[in-house]
Amino acid sequence: MSQLVRAKISALGTYVPPRLLTNDDLEKMVETTNQWILERTGIRERHVVDKGVATSDLAVEAAKQALAQRGLSPTDLEAIILGTVTPDMFFPSTACLVQHKLGAKGVWGFDVSAACSAFIYALQAGAQFIATGAHKKVMVIGADTMSSVIDYTDRATCVIFGDGAGAVILEPADDDSLGLIDFLHEVDGSGACALYMPGGGSLNPSTHETVDKKMHYVHQDGQAVFKFAVRKQTELCEKILEKNGLKGSDIDAFIPHQANKRIITATADRLGLRPEAVIINIDRFGNTTAGTIPLAMETARQEGKLKKGDLVLLASVGAGFTVGATLLRWAF
Ligand code: UT7
Predict the structure, then answer these.
(1) Which parts of the chain sit beneath pLDDT 50?
(2) Does the CB atom of residue 260 touch ligand 1 within 6 A?
């Protein structure tokens, strides 16, 4: 087998819908307070779509931004890999809809279902096509319209989630010191019932009864997910650092999934990360599932915390359970 090529991220685009849903708004919808939401989650506001706007629309806006940043046209792409848990519909895949809306003629693609870990799982899938030399330009998108699967009468879930998307372009790294270095992913399906949407699939096809029972909404055992997230995210991050001869203090930017500010800080403390290296934007976006990590990459860039050559650790935990850690050097 010929030598594998390292993949690098060469562009980043993000998009959130303009409409804001603030904690004050939620106080009027369910029995909650701004103080509870802020203290227990770190969230102040999140963005939500207007009726008729779907995941592919958010994805396309993020994709266009990434293409413009790199000066590429949609037909320069070879594949689109899209992570989402809220596809426009069961089929066709949202990657197909994005391909068509972008006008990316001749490009192939598919969706990845891994909830909050979908972006980094899709990133790794894309990196393999670059590594083998099969492709030179792969677009990886994380996009979710969580407001479409949230019960806005359930205070335990409706305060957490928001809508958003991010897209990156993967290309071969000409400079071998930059790009994706390593990854460590793990799934544990024993956690399936801690965070899931029971209705609408082949097990419980949609009926009046499944709708009456609110089975088309997100159901979560918050405490179970919280405990698993802190333990497992830390474990995978520790392992990937150790495997690469690194310490927490070597990381320039820690870009974790943003599900709860307390999960992020607990992980960061256990890893011994420098506080200024920990990227947090949950206050402005909430948990946007697959959109979260690229949105947090953009926050890091805007805060001047993501420069060429920086050592970056991405981490995620999501429904499944799915867990992931990715180590890379930022390349632009
Ligand atoms: O991205 C996917 C991964 N998801 C996650 O990582 C989520 C992980 N879990 C969490 O972030 C937290 O568990 C939550 C934010 C979901 C909940 O926070 P918590 O501190 O674990 O609260 P809890 O579920 O233990 O509930 C504590 C109390 C309960 O009241 P009682 O029984 O003590 O009277 C809840 O009913 O807080 C109550 N509560 C609320 N009160 C005001 C739950 N939600 C709310 C709310 N406003 N929105």
Answers:
(1) 1
(2) yes
Token representation of residue 314: 């991405």
Sequence-ordered list of residues with C-beta below 8 angstroms from that of 66, at least 6 positions apart, any chain = 11, 12, 13, 139, 167, 168, 169
Binding site membership of 158 for ligand 1 (Cβ less than 6 Å): no
Facing residues of 195 across strands?
220
Q: Could you tell which of 226, 285, 295 is best to mutate to test the pocket of ligand 1, judged by most ligand atoms within 8 Å of the CB? A: 226
Closest ligand 1 atom to residue 156 Cα is: 44
Q: Largest Cα–Cα distance of the chain, in whole Å?
A: 61
Q: Using a 6 Å cutoff on CB, does residue 261 contact ligand 1? A: no
pLDDT in tens, 128-184: 999 999 999 999 999 999 999 999 999 999 999 999 999 999 999 989 899 999 999
- Look at the chain and count its residues: 332
Task: Give the residue numbers marked as catalytic.
Answer: 116, 257, 287
Same domain flag for 154 and 290 = no
Q: Which domain holds residue 61?
A: 7-172
What global pTM score does this model have?
0.98
CA angle 57, 60, 65 (to 5 degrees): 135
Which residue, of 124, 139, 172, is where some domain finishes?
A: 172
Are residues 150 and 12 part of one domain?
yes
Question: What's the domain count of the chain?
Answer: 2
Q: Which two tokens stand for residue 310?
A: 């920086």
Q: Amino acid identity of 143? A: A
Tokens matching residue 198: 């029971």
